[in-house]
Amino acid sequence: MFIALLILLLTFAFLGIIYYRRQQNADKIGGPISQAKAFWLSYVLLNYFGLSVYVLMVLSPEMPGYRTVLVFTLLIYLRAIIQLLMMYGFLNWKPTYGIISNLLIAIVLLFFFGKEMSGSEFDGVQDYILPLFIINLMAILLCDSYYAREFHRIVGEETTGSKAVWFASGNEARFSTINRLTYRLNIFFVLLTANTFALILIAYG
């Protein structure tokens, strides 16, 4: 299980580095991305599309929170398809759409999470894995919504069209505050996810 987690982590880290380098080309749609934002993007994708599938595959459907993670995974993959089409196909993606979808998914997540937790019995360390992961997911959704709001406040309607700007670059003064905040919160979120990793390793080695 440790090897699988390590491979998953390294895979998303590698993809993040490749994407970061790719975006530094000024001609690439979306524009350059700062190191802090590239790390955040990789971290979010790891949780949304990597860890969510991983825990569904290796953990028991009877564990508290399993159905909540399943619903989240279905919703986030659907959202990803729509978002990619709007970004790269129709060129009309706006941060507002991301904020709305994040908050809607968070509400659904909270509903299913509350429903599953009521009456659930925790028999061991393994039963805390999914609840902690779900809390992590909700924190990501809310934090990402804040980032999107701040980014939208800075760039306005620059996120659409063939010259769309989707990321905070590392060399523009207008993004300095959001990049500093992202760097600091990246540390917090890494520690939060590390707790989930630790529980998995303690429970299953």
Structural summary, described in words:
With 205 residues, the chain is mainly alpha-helical. The protein contains six helices and no strands. Helix content is 73%, strand content 0%. Helix 1 (2-23) packs antiparallel against helix 2 (35-58), helix 2 (35-58) packs parallel to helix 6 and helix 3 packs antiparallel against helix 4 (95-117). The protein is globular and about 55 Å long.
Bulk shape: globular
Give the amount of beta strand, in percent: under 5%
The helix/strand series, from N terminus to C terminus, equals: HHHHHH
Question: What is the CA–CA distance across the termini?
Answer: 7 Å
Number of helices: 6
Number of DSSP E strands: 0
Kindly state the percentage of residues in helix. over 70%
Mean pLDDT over the residues: 96
| Structural class assignment | mainly alpha
Poorly predicted spans: none
Our Rg estimate from Cα atoms comes to: 18 Å
Largest sheet: none
What's the structural blueprint in terms of helices and strands?
Blueprint: H1 2-23, H2 35-58, H3 66-89, H4 95-117, H5 129-155, H6 176-204
Helix pairs in contact: 1-2, 2-3, 2-6, 3-4, 4-5, 5-6
Keywords:
single chain, mainly alpha
Short account of what is shown:
The chain has 205 residues and is mainly α. It contains six helices and no strands.
